[in-house]
Amino acid sequence: MSVGTPDFKPYNHVVEALTQAAQDPEMWKYALRDLPELKQAVCDYYERRFGVSGITPSMVQSCNGTQEGVGHLGLALLDPGDTILVPDPCYPVFEAGAKIADAKLEYYPLVAEHNYLPYVAGIDPEVADRAKYMIVSLPANPVGSVGTPEIYEEIIAFAREHDLLIVHDNAYSDIVFDGEPGGSFLQYPGALEVGVEFFSLSKSFNVTGARIGFLVGREDVVSAFAKLRGQIDFGMFFPIQKAAIACLNGPRDEVEAQRLKYQERRDALCDGLEGLGWERPNAHGSMFVWAKLPGGRTDSMAFCEELMEKAGVVVTPGASFGPSGEGHVRMALVLPPDQIALAVEAIREAGLY
Q1: Distance (Å, whole) CA 46 – CA 48
Q2: Residue 36 above 90 pLDDT?
Q3: What are the two backbone dihedrals, phi and then psi, of residue 285, each rounded to the nearest 5 degrees?
Q4: Whole-angstrom Cα distance, residue 37 to residue 60?
Q5: How far is residue 290's CA from residue 288's CA, in Å, rounded to a whole number?
Q6: 211-235: pLDDT as tens digits
Q7: How far, in Å, CA of 97 to CA of 113, rounded?
Q8: What percent of the chain shows pLDDT beyond 70?
Q9: Domains of the chain and CATH, by start
């Protein structure tokens, strides 16, 4: 329950698209570019799935997953010493990307008081004025929060006020619970003027190993990123591009069925831990549960070691995700409910509550 790799299988039509393309020897050459039909499929998907019109192929660039995309974006946009804003806790590559670009990190906290959502009113205006861009990740890994229209409106207004680019990480738009629809930052008025979005197929379509992601949005930013990628990569393998097209153009019934299964897992884990006396974890979206350490404990690394040794349950210490992550653990919803119940029982038997 530590690494967020889905245990669900990729959909048959996606596998078939890839294997069929791989039979063609021409598909094994350098790609050098995104296929026009791939870029168009992203544009069409954004309009059909998120209601975002106006996305054109020049506003789309593939990358080898969001991990690689966020990690390299700073090289395209930043000078050494520039400042970026990142959430705390956050996915570690947000910090790593700043370090790769020799940039300065400034954190903005995601705390329970504000439902683990960005609170832009709490960001120092001088820091915001210095920052070149702000990374926002919703649904959030690791904390499990989900954006609201009000939050996105505040972020867009904040970006305008401080002449700040918003870089939104949208990896979990199809894993949102309790009836709330997953969406896109770019669907909100003004977002295309102030931001871009990393959009991943990994979790929705169970293609994590294929590394399929896109930067979508403001054309000048996408163009700068594309220039960088043209120097460090020869393009996405053509059969993988064909698989991506199948994901984007194919049916979504399996995606929705899978979302409900993730919700069953979320319920099994959160109900189970709460039943042991843990504070109910935060888990409104993403494939992760963010849990406060039980029994007044504060050292997440020590607790994870104890949990592994006594209960045989492996999770990720919150301290791995930034200073504000200490005192928590992240648990991945990568087991079916019956196995999650066994894990909860093992925690109970170990007395870790």
Answers
A1: 6
A2: yes
A3: -170, 170
A4: 12
A5: 7
A6: 999 999 999 999 999 999 999 999 9
A7: 28
A8: 100
A9: 12-249 (3.40.640.10), 253-349 (3.90.1150.10)
